[in-house]
Amino acid sequence: MSISKVTPPEVGSYAGALVTVATSLTLTEFGVIVGIATALLTFVLNAWYTHQRNTREHLLAELDRREREVRLQQLQAQLLAPLSPPASLVKA
After folding, report:
1. Cα separations (Å) of 54 from 29, 40, 82?
2. How far apart are CA 18 and CA 82, in angstroms?
3. 0.85 exceeded by the pTM?
């Protein structure tokens, strides 16, 4: 299967068809097309920003969880420290 090159007459034919369709649209039809395109663009951008926000919130939640674990370990170390004898009383 080979891919054929597009010849200049084919390009002209497609361009002519595109111009014909574009000039046959009324202002109302053009407005509908622009409205649909705007709605699709809004949906895509909203999905992208929502994905970014979810990723950011997930990372912040993970950071918060790790920070709580470190604080808990520090608190446990502080609570256990008085149970061990002071260094001045320990004989080497």
Report:
1. 38, 21, 43
2. 84
3. no
